[in-house]
Write a structure and sequence with these properties.
The chain has 3 domains: 32 residues, no CATH class; 170 residues, Sandwich (Jelly Rolls); 103 residues, Homeodomain-like (Arc Repressor Mutant, subunit A), CATH 1.10.10. The chain has a 6-stranded antiparallel sheet. It has a 4-stranded antiparallel sheet with strand order 6-11-8-9, with no helix packed on it. A 3-stranded antiparallel sheet has the order 1-2-3, with no helix packed on it. By secondary structure, the chain is α+β, with helices and mostly antiparallel strands.
Length: 326
């Protein structure tokens, strides 16, 4: 019998130890792709040096940025410290990180910072690998945001959580960097990143700053509005009818009946409409591939996504993407 021990080295590399009595073999496996649906940008050193000299951007400099969905086997260990801070924001699944000899466990709707100059390691849970947004950054104002946040910090969905808006800020940063490294782009992304970090560091202020037309209440209209808000806040996850009914505090049958009465759709159909709407937005305004968009709306099966999209929109995602050019 052969025994295999697999170590994750990078999104494209696995180190595999194969034990066959009486010897041990070691091989490195290069993967064709990293995590399915992953996106990342590593800024060139020349651009970072330009940022360091800019009086505005130097306060908060992004050096690397990315999104890893369902990051199975994700593992990073840095025995030699780096000069950037690391932000990891977990939106689904589980993971862990080790800092100063202490191991912390992370679950969905939590974030943490790894400060510059400190050895650390982190990785995805084996059974429920995390989906994460991550950013490497530095600058004269970086410590203001990282201070006191070296343990998992909660960002749980509620009636005014604005998770959907926060993720939209990330996408705007990413899309702007994709469009080039002009001085205006770098200043804009640095300013947006201040806002992005502030939405976490000053969580209550971020949540209370937006006034909603209706307060959470017990009447039927607000019940449906609250459940729709919850759907939008969790657009990147698989949401079940049981989860929605538990969130609203009603039985599954009563909630489903009430929701369809108010909207004309079952809760699951409405979720699919929201996911398709979000997919259309990304097809229109980003360069994401279809498999990347799937993970961004909580659908891992690209074939199912294509069938769902065609059923709702009357055309495949590819045809929808190309319709402007044709």
């Amino acid at each position: 019998m052969d025994y295999f021990i697999i170590f994750y080295l990078s999104p494209n590399t696995l180190l595999i130890f194969v034990y066959r009595k009486p010897k041990l073999s070691i091989m490195t496996l290069k993967l064709k792709d990293g995590f399915t649906g992953e996106r990342s940008i590593v800024l060139p050193r020349m651009v970072i040096e330009m940022e360091e000299k800019d009086p505005l951007v130097s306060s908060l400099i992004i050096t690397d940025i990315g999104y890893y969905p369902n990051a199975k086997y994700h593992f990073i260990e840095r025995k030699e410290p780096i000069n950037q801070n690391v932000l990891i924001y977990c939106v689904e699944g589980k993971g862990w990180f080790q800092l100063k000899g202490k191991t912390n466990f992370v679950h969905a709707n939590q974030y943490f910072f790894l400060p510059a100059g400190e050895p650390h390691s982190y990785g995805a849970d084996k059974k429920e690998p995390w989906t994460i947004y991550w950013v490497h950054f530095k600058g004269s104002h970086a410590q203001i945001y990282t201070e006191g946040c070296q343990e998992p910090q909660d960002i749980a969905p509620d009636s005014d959580s604005r998770i959907f808006e926060r993720n939209h800020i990330f996408e705007e940063i990413f899309h702007t960097l994709e469009n080039g490294y002009s001085r205006e782009n770098m200043r804009y992304t640095s300013s947006l990143f201040h806002y992005y970090l502030a939405s976490m560091k000053y969580l209550q202020q971020f949540r209370k700053s937006k006034q909603y037309n209706q307060e959470m209440g017990v009447n039927d209209d607000n019940l449906v509005n609250a459940s729709i808000h919850y759907m939008k806040e969790n657009i990147e996850r698989k949401i079940t009818i049981e989860e929605l009914s538990q969130y609203t505090g009603y039985s599954t049958s009563y909630f489903s009946k009430l929701f369809k009465k108010e909207t004309g759709h079952s809760p699951i159909n409405y979720i699919n409409l929201l996911k398709t709407q979000k997919a259309c937005e990304m097809l229109d305004y980003t360069n994401m591939h279809i498999n990347q968009i799937c993970f961004k709306i909580g659908i891992e099966d690209c074939y199912y996504f294509s069938r769902l999209f065609k059923k709702i929109m009357g055309m495949s995602p590819k045809v929808y993407k190309n319709r402007k050019t044709t």
